[in-house]
Amino acid sequence: MKKLIIGTVTAAILATAGVAADFTLKFSHVVSDNTPKGKAARFFEKRLEELSKGRIDVQVYPSSQLYKDNAVLKALRLNSVQMAAPSFSKFGKIVPQLALFDLPFLFKDINHLHRVQDGEVGEKLKDLVRKKGIVALSFWDNHFKQLSSSKKALIKPEDASGQKFRIMSSKVLEAQFHAVGANPQMMPFSEVYSGLQQGVIDGQENTNSNIFTKKFYEVQKYLTVSNHGYLGYLVVMSKKFWKSLPEDLQKNVIQAMNEATQKERQYADELNTQQFNEIKAYAQKTGKLEIINLSSEQRQAWADKVSTIYPEFYDKKKIGKELIEKTLATK
């Protein structure tokens, strides 16, 4: 009897150890595990392995362990990596229409944004990416951007006039700041803190999490809660890998991704709130930062001023009038 029990246990251990995955999915991203994107990637890993009953082995590589965002799309096409979640700006050369998300004051709030992403406009954008040989799966949040300055409180659009604002490479963001008489300055993200500290630039626009983690609030006098623009990511997959999966595993991927997307949005919203509270606590404690909450009328004045740039991007090779109008019309 004892031999039989030992034999059964041994067989069970060997059987478990011998279950090799049919597919290996390497998920490369550039942020740490404790960020919303990092946590959602780990959730996706666990969930897809559960749903596929171990047939897909998901391996997450955070913090640019495999690739930086500027190299990952090429790696994806070669199937050297199977999944990534780059920021929209990394798709600029292949799908410029994703600059839709750079347009200022296009989204009423986070719920309107998600309805756009999950609806017809989001599907059209994902189709444009798919036509370039990359499978687009889902949109993930960083969050809305705020404006800051060391020179003058940004309450009216005219307050930005003559100020130098750092931007990432984007024709939309250039036009946005020109519309309010400001001077946009392209600068790598890694140089923004020193640029603000040394007065090379007067202000910047970023999400609360970027403003907090990079301590931009320490070298700015004014922070305006504008929620004027959006930063996000597109989760993409290697077409070769996707086509190699049988239909049942493709369905598992979609389900795991849908669940991970809901989690990621929740994580991003919680972090945005938490880190804004940290910035407010710093402002109250030190008195070195003034936080400006725009009234609905003041926000509308900004929106009226900068939305005049929309027609500049009606060309389909830029963004396209239809995508802009469908976004505005999304209920």
What do these coordinates show?
This protein is α/β, with parallel strands linked by helices. The protein has one domain: Bacterial extracellular solute-binding protein, family 7 (D-Maltodextrin-Binding Protein, domain 2, 3-Layer(aba) Sandwich), CATH 3.40.190.170. 45% of the residues lie in helices and 18% in strands. The chain is built from 12 helices and 10 strands. The chain has helices spanning 2-17, 36-51, 69-77, 110-118, 120-130, 171-179, 192-197, 208-213, 239-244, 247-286, 296-306, 321-329, and strands at residues 23-28, 56-61, 83-84, 134-149, 164-167, 183-186, 203-207, 222-225, 230-238, 290-293. Strands 1, 2, 3, 4, 5, 6, 7, 8, 9 and 10 form a 10-stranded mixed sheet that branches. 40% of the residues are buried. The model is unreliable at 1-17 (pLDDT under 50).
Categorize the overall geometry: globular
Strand content: 15-25%
| Share of helix, binned | 40-55%
What's the number of helices? 12
Report the structural category.
alpha/beta
CATH homologous superfamily label: Bacterial extracellular solute-binding protein, family 7
Do you know the CATH topology? D-Maltodextrin-Binding Protein, domain 2
Instruction: List unreliable stretches of 5+ residues.
Output: 1-17
Largest sheet: 10 strands, mixed
- Element pattern in H and E: HEHEHEHHEEHEHEHEEHHEHH
Query: Taking all residues together, what is the mean pLDDT?
Result: 93
The CATH architecture classification is 3-Layer(aba) Sandwich
| Secondary structure tally: strands | 10
Q: What is the total domain count?
A: 1
The CATH C-level name is Alpha Beta
Question: What's the Cα radius of gyration?
Answer: 23 Å
Distance between the termini: 69 Å
